[in-house]
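Q: What structure does this chain adopt?
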Amino acid sequence: MKKNGKGRPHPSTMRAVSLAVAAALMLALTGCGPVDAGSSAADAFERDFADVDGVASIETGAHNDLPFMGSVDAHVTAETDLSDAEVDELAAAFSEYMRSHSANVGWNSSLTAGAVTVGVDEDEESGTKHLEVARDLMVVPHVQRVEVGLAFSDERVLVSVDSPEMLTQGYLAAASAVRRLGVTDGRSNAHAITGSPGFGIDDMSWDGDAPDIMPALTAYEMIRTRFTLSGAAVTPDELHVRTASDDDVSALQEFVSSLSTPADLAIDVQGGVTTMSEPTEAASVVTDALADLGVSTAIRTSNNYVNVTVPAAADAETVLDAIGDLPEFRSLSGFGLSTADTEFSVFDRPADFPGSLAIAQAAHSLPGIDAVDVRETDADEQEPTARFEFSNSDEATISAFASTMKPLLLERGWHTWINADGSVEWFTAADPLVLDDPVGVGRDAEGQRFADMLVRLWDAAPR
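A:
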């Protein structure tokens, strides 16, 4: 605060503070609006707009940014049997509502009508333009879904097509739509995707300035027409392609090397379920063995680390039997295995991996178990960590946990986290057990009851 020569606040500063206080009091006393302006406006919108003709559903979110000021995220879904004219009327009513309720509230709003979602705002013409552009895109062959002009989306225009063969056509239609909108501020990118994840084209444009995506687009089309792909991502600077089979990777890499492409266009080739980044020779051998096994749903290899995803925890033994005796496996810096639902996960150095897997498998067999994560990094200063989640916190569940897991966790002094139906505790496995102090506020009565029970049952369990 600015002070005068005697160390007291300067008169101009005092006047500014007084005016600010007076302004706040005036807002409160003159009924200019509720303090929680955002949430109040969201509630009012849901109440006022619920009975508007043609509205099927409303979703809102609110932010009370400052006293008497806020913002609302509002999304309206139209009834499926509305005509285009009726959807236009609904969008116009939406805009009118925002115009008449924007004194202290900002709006981020959108409207879905069938397969079309558009941004709407206080300017009625903006919503009308978005609807016109979206409808024209929907008549393009193979287009399934369209988004136009959503305020906080990752793209200005998004087109979803029904197959990778139609991806370029969908992108060109989206790019034409962006030019039609005449966007010169913020995101101005066109983005096309397939209905199922795996393929996308995005020109990454900002402020109406679209980088040259044609070299990457041309290379993608040349690759797509010669190889069976399971995924691709095309941007002006990068082209990522994935062959449906690992067997095609070498041929595709050779084909890519024969293409005449700009030096600054990076092309990454992957195959099947495998993703590799600068793998060591040992990691490549292990990755190939896993790919040949045919059990994995994903294999991610980076430097001297390999991580594999399998359908079920029972597949872990099959994986370890296939690679456990390979000298290349034992020379890895780290190996990880998890299920696709991430409810079963193990990571450790290869030499210690069987022991860590045994811990995870033992926990996975316990009653009420929801998730298991057992891991030790290759950093010597970090202690191994085991995490267990249970759907129950009763004595039978915790007794089974203590009896089964105590001998296994004591062996390497595992730092252990347990979440039993919301009752959470950290401890380093020891006998007797000492729980870590809770972070922040202390335990409430229920939390203390659970902590006491955990210690009692753990200490009573055999080593």
